[in-house]
Design goal:
Blueprint (H helix, E strand, L loop, with lengths): L1 E5 L3 H12 L3 E6 L14 E2 L8 H19 L7 E2 L3 E4 L2 H4 L8 H10 L5 E3 L1 H7 L5 H4 L4 E4 L3 E3 L1 H16 L2 E4 L2 E7 L2 E7 L4 E3 L2 E4 L21 E7 L10 E3 L4 E4 L5 E4 L1 H4 L13 H13 L10 E7 L8 E5 L2 E8 L3 H18 L17
Parallel strand pairs: 1-2, 1-13, 2-9, 5-15, 13-20
Antiparallel strand pairs: 3-8, 4-8, 5-7, 6-7, 10-11, 11-12, 14-17, 14-18, 15-16, 16-17, 19-20
Helix pairs in contact: 1-7, 1-10, 2-10
Bound molecules: flavin-adenine dinucleotide (FAD).
The site of flavin-adenine dinucleotide has 41 residues, from helix 1, strand 2, strand 14, strand 18 and helix 10.
Length: about 375
């Protein structure tokens, strides 16, 4: 089977690698560098504990964690998946079931019932684990510890998978921008690049993330997206005051390699009006740094060094969209938020469906067809 994979982000690289490994003749088309899209501007927490709105979605993301462990085992020496644990706490309002409507202890019970490694820590335990965290930033609320959680480095991951698809499994990499799908009636037969080249295949797998619909001519084949902006601030290298990742009402922060810290916040993301002005002076970046200092006072003399703003590829109802698009055979879309968590698993199941023809139940609730009724 000949397959074209459009986009080599964390999802496209996973899909291309697994397809090639399963025996497909794969051509990957990427206009930037592998991992250079949204996958290069992300918190990259590989988790299912933030995905409790639907059990099927939780299970999909839980499988995503396992798939990353399996993937790592196939790449001896790879160090793109870090799992020192994640600490999460809520403010008093949220604890009372207020602001975001979640009760952290009810959430914990649900997670434990579903087999997710999670526990509550006392302030003393937190101090022993992460002595630099300011206890006042936590207050009198439960701290949930996910001892096996962590984050991925999506760019090295994507690069390594693309290299392996090429070197181990004979895939081809084409640098260039896909302009459009090539159609013959109700069948997609390949793609046309912006420079006029065409490539034919039995199936085109669209992993172009936030740009998914740009190559799809007909509106009836476009998956509705509800993208959101996210801003990430990076510090310069500092003398490692923290090992774990933090998910807190003020700021989410974690080490980002070489002593750097990566900072972000959903609340501050919601204030973004555009993706312009991604500079250290950006007001949200400055606020992220202030919040990080409140949380870890050892950062008090540290300034923001770099800022990035990205657009999340999110299907309109917030859940993944993976599968054929009605009315267009030979075309298969894979678009999702939480793509870092899900990438490795989506690679597995997409390859299973397309190469072995085994329809995967895990995807039943996440088909693009739900948007086309
Ligand atoms: C601030 C922020 C925080 C996040 N936090 C998390 C988190 O903690 N955990 C988590 O799991 N997820 C998180 N996400 C979401 C996650 O980063 C994305 O879901 C994921 O990176 C999407 O990967 P992708 O491969 O679909 O897209 P991308 O990485 O954008 O890859 C798409 C690729 O397609 C290429 N492309 C596009 N159009 C064309 C074309 N016409 N021709 C050729 N190539 C093309 C692009 O160049 C790009 O490389 C976060 C996102 C943001 C922005």
């Amino acid at each position: 089977m000949q397959a074209i994979v459009v986009g080599a982000g964390v999802i496209g690289s996973s899909v291309a690698y697994r397809l090639a490994q399963a025996g497909a003749e794969v051509t990957i088309v990427e206009e930037r560098r592998p991992g250079g899209g949204t996958s290069s501007v992300t918190y990259a927490w590989v988790n299912a504990c933030e995905k409790l709105t639907s059990e099927a979605y939780f299970r999909l993301n839980f499988a995503g964690r396992q798939a990353h462990e399996d993937m790592l085992a196939e790449f001896p020496g790879a160090d793109w998946y870090h799992r020192p644990g994640v600490l999460q706490w809520q403010d008093a309002e949220a604890e009372a079931g207020g602001r975001d409507g979640t009760d952290p202890l009810a959430k914990l019970q649900q997670l434990i019932a579903w087999g997710y490694p999670a526990e509550v820590l006392s302030l003393d335990d937190v101090r022993k684990l992460e002595p630099e965290i300011n206890p006042d930033a936590i207050g009198n609320v439960p701290v949930i510890h996910y001892p096996r959680d962590g984050w991925l480095d999506p760019v090295p991951y994507s690069g390594a998978l693309i290299t392996a698809a090429l070197e181990r499994h004979g895939a081809t990499f084409v640098e260039g921008r896909v302009d459009r799908l090539v159609l013959a009636g109700e069948r997609c037969t390949g793609i046309e690049l912006a420079d006029g080249r065409t490539i034919e295949a039995d199936v085109v797998v669209n992993c172009a993330g936030r740009w998914l619909n740009d190559i799809v001519q007909a509106s009836e084949h476009r998956i509705p997206l509800a993208p959101t902006l996210g801003i990430v601030a990076y510090t310069p290298p500092v003398g490692a005051p923290l090992r774990s990742a933090l998910r807190t009402p003020l700021v989410n922060m974690r080490p980002d390699g070489g002593g750097r810290f990566l900072l972000r916040s959903n609340e501050l993301d919601r204030l973004l009006a555009s993706d312009e002005g991604a500079l250290p002076s950006h007001p949200q970046a400055q606020e992220l740094m202030r919040r990080a200092i409140k949380t870890v006072p050892a950062l008090r003399n540290v300034d923001v060094e770099a800022v990035r703003i990205a657009t999340r590829p999110i299907p309109k109802d917030s859940y993944s969209a993976v599968g054929p698009v009605p009315g267009l055979s030979g075309y298969y879309a894979v678009v999702s938020h939480s793509g870092v968590t899900l990438g490795a698993f989506l690679g597995e199941v997409v390859a299973d469906e397309l190469v072995h023809g085994r329809e995967r139940n895990e995807l039943a609730e996440f088909r693009p067809s739900r948007f086309f009724n």
